[in-house]
Amino acid sequence: MKKARIAIIGVGWWGTVGHLEPLSKDEKTELVAVYSRTEEKARQRAEHYGVPKYYSDYRQMIEENSLDGVIIATTPNMHYEQARFALEHGLHVLMEKPFVFKAEHAKDLARIAQEKGLLLSACYPQCFHPWMIEARQHIRDGKLGNLLLMTRTFSQRVYDLYKGDVSGMFGGRGENYPVPNATSYSDPSIVGGGEGHTQATHTIGELLYLCELTPVSAFAYMNNLDVAIDVVDAIAVRFDNGALATIGASGQVPPRMGAFGTQIIGDRGVFAVDSTRWAAKIWLEGDPAPRDLAQPERRNLTAEVPRNFVRAILGEEELHIPTKVAIDTVKILDAAYSSAESGRAVEIR
Fold it and tell me: C-alpha angle with apex 86: 85 to 90, nearest 5 degrees?
């Protein structure tokens, strides 16, 4: 059986839970090596998951091994340089969100990938949800008509991480559960922004996946509450066809609560998801009432992301999250942070 030879750059919390663990069980994946800044962590992960090699220098790992692709799950401040190095060495790249901080860096990575014919994608698990896939097809088929307004809310408690209180977020986990460092989500020099780069990036990527439109401007308000990074965000986006989108995200909600919802409104129909209630509806022109979409079997959408990356490398599947979605998400967030600072709408190029 043909397998994709993969290395993972960053095996902390999400690099382990979201990538190393599922790929260690994937029959189409040959895990060649793992990297961590801390050699002992790299060694422990490699031994636990049966990976033959481990490194504390990602450049050495890439140069010494025959690889097909890498998954980058380090802190966001390292993403650009690591992805660029991997692409320049001819490797396909799957990057955890936030992809990169700056639009110019995102465009540079996309240029290199295109010139070399390489896959480049970001991790947005909800785009693998059957409701999202069905809605995207309805939009592609024109059933919703001309898209006019898109709204998305994505709020869950990550405020503790923004404060650097890791135990407040992960206190109930077992002692062997991998957790991030206290600064990984609280230090602006490491994480960039807060709710925008950590959470709103999800919902922006999902909207771009659904609508396949190009953003042209953004305006944002952001509230830091009592921490160094944004906790509550409201972002408005205008697209090239005139459609508008509003994105709301809050990292400060009571423990174990969340609010998640999507509405896509066109001149011929409406698609709506209430993830909190586990319900989705579509109402098309001519229908007497909205139709409930069938509830899909619940599965681990997180594992779908690296699984698809591997099969796209092997030529067995299309890459589910196109490069354009990753790049345009960065463009919107870059513009949103500039807008929140300046108090003005920012053009996107």
Answer: 115
